[in-house]
Amino acid sequence: MTTAPTDGDLLRELSPVAERLLDDHLQTAKAWNPHDYVPWDDGRNFAELGGIDWEPGQSNLSELARVAMVTNLLTEDNLPSYHREIAENLGVDGAWGTWVGRWTAEENRHAIVLRDYLVVTRAVDPVALEQARMAHMTAGIASPQQGPKFLHSLAYVTLQELATRISHRNTGTACGEPIAERMLTRIAADENLHMIFYRGISSAALDLTPDRMLRAITDVVTQFQMPGLTQPNFRRNAVLLAKHGIYDLPQHLDAVLHPVLRSWNVFDRTDLSGEGERARDELHAYLEHLQTKAARFTEQRDRALARESARRLSPAE
Q1: Would you call 14 helix, strand, or coil by DSSP?
Q2: Angle 63-77/94-120 helices, nearest 10 degrees?
Q3: Distance (Å, rounded) from C-alpha 179 to C-alpha 64?
Q4: Which SS3 state, helix, strand or coil, does residue 59 take?
Q5: Which residue of 75, 233, 270, 295 has the lowest C-beta tally within 10 Å?
Q6: What is the 8-class DSSP label of residue 255?
Q7: In the chain, which stretches have pLDDT less than 70?
Q8: Which of 288, 243, 289, 283 is nearest to 267 (CA)?
Q9: What is the pLDDT of residue 315?
Q10: How confident is the model over 242-301, as pLDDT tens digits?
Q11: What are the phi and psi torsion angles at 292 (to 5°)?
């Protein structure tokens, strides 16, 4: 009887793919500095804007844009948890270790530039922001998966990086402010490159062990949660962001799940056995369920927004 490869076996088999994708990433990624996107030369300081006190009138961002920016920043802030999970699953040797270090440094830059922008432009209450950061990072986040996590980790980070890219881009648009939009577009470009790396490793893992990888993909898709789940007020803020199209269920389905699953050729593979076939059938059924939920969400949101618009346009009594 053939013994299933261990995580160590898979790491060794996939190391050449990691090396190639790492080289591709290093050649494609362009260096950039956070301070290039923050208005340090604005000519104003905190004292000129009312000292250490803060009130919403000091910000030019809408409430939606401010909530989206803070949600994205706190998500990026939780980097130590993500680093630990990825380092444990990928290891710190060879191309894997180089990638983990490089990825961590690039993700940390996102938190730096987001915080610099929000604080320098007085877009948020800096005291409340620091309190939220402390609470979120103290709670941290850990994978719910028990036992071997390598394949599940690959599937999750592929989907999560793409979801984060979409959230950043839509947040930039919602800001309605050129500097913020340029900054978030720059961050989103990094997230896309990260997704490409993880998607490529996952594709190679599918070819190497299709049944186990399909099982991992199905587990991740059916249990997917965004990494900001432990943020203060995350659920309430997530509802607001979904309502206004920053990141919602239809986007998750149409802009994340479907494109990635097509790239992995999940539904046209002919190399699956019973275990893999069962996982794929489960995945197919879940996607159909999600399609129904997404359509219902869109209808309900459209009705709610229409009612709000009608109330705003109706004459005051």
Answers
A1: helix
A2: 150
A3: 17
A4: coil
A5: 270
A6: I
A7: 1-2, 33-35, 38-53, 142-148, 314-317
A8: 283
A9: 59
A10: 999 999 999 999 999 999 999 999 999 999 999 999 999 999 999 999 999 999 999 999
A11: -65, -45
Amino acid at 146: Q
Q: Which of helix, strand or coil describes residue 31?
A: coil
For 15-34, the DSSP string reads HHHHHHHHHHHHHH-----G
Residue pair 279/217 in contact (Cβ under 8 Å)? The answer is yes
User: Is residue 128 a contact partner of residue 53, using CB atoms and an 8 Å limit?
Assistant: no
176 φψ region: left (φ > 0), alpha (ψ -120 to 50), beta (else): left
127 vs 54: CA distance, rounded Å = 9
In single-letter form, the type of residue at position 221 comes to V
The pLDDT value recorded for residue 47 is: 47
CB 172 within 8 A of CB 183: yes
Tokens of 26: 């290093």
Three-class secondary structure of residue 257 per DSSP: helix
Please tell me whether the overall predicted TM-score, pTM, comes out greater than 0.70 for this model.
Answer: yes
Question: What is the Cα–Cα distance from 179 to 177, expressed in whole angstroms?
Answer: 6
State the CB neighbour count (10 A cutoff) for residue 24: 14
Are 154 and 216 contacting, i.e. CB atoms less than 8 angstroms apart?
yes
In order of 145, 176, 206, the CA distances from 112 in angstroms are 30, 21, 35
SS3 52: coil
Q: Indicate the residue type of 166.
A: I
Task: Give the residue from 77, 86, 71, 109 showing the smallest Cα distance to 187.
Answer: 109
